[in-house]
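pasting for ref
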Amino acid sequence: ETIFMDLNHEFVVNVPIANAWTILTDLELIAPCLPGAQLTEIDGDTYFGNVKVKVGPILAQFDGQAQFLERNEAEHRAALKGEGRDKSGKGSTSATITARLEAVSDTSTKCLVHTDLVITGKLAQFGRGALADVSDKILAMFVENLNKLIAAS
């Protein structure tokens, strides 16, 4: 079973757009803000790591990699392609995440995130609703952690 999903999120960070760009394109810095994620290795432009995600009763642990497809600083737009496979065969996932920054004011920036997500295997059986809920919760925690990180720096 395969599910294709389009997810749209937006959030605000309380830093100027130039700072937001530097922070949000630094995967090493922001990876720990993503619940269950761990960056294990960087090889040139490829980032390797793993992510644990709980959907319903299933805990999936994906080993995967990510690469920037685009990093357009002039337009404050970046695209990241990631893919992962569950260690115990519960499925695989791939995502293209496109983020665009807009200055809200001199001291705050809106981040618009579009995720093109493909999920196959056991996790897909939970359906779009459950998977969208999980991704909303993960993003909300990511934003909270990101804002703590920004406040501390």
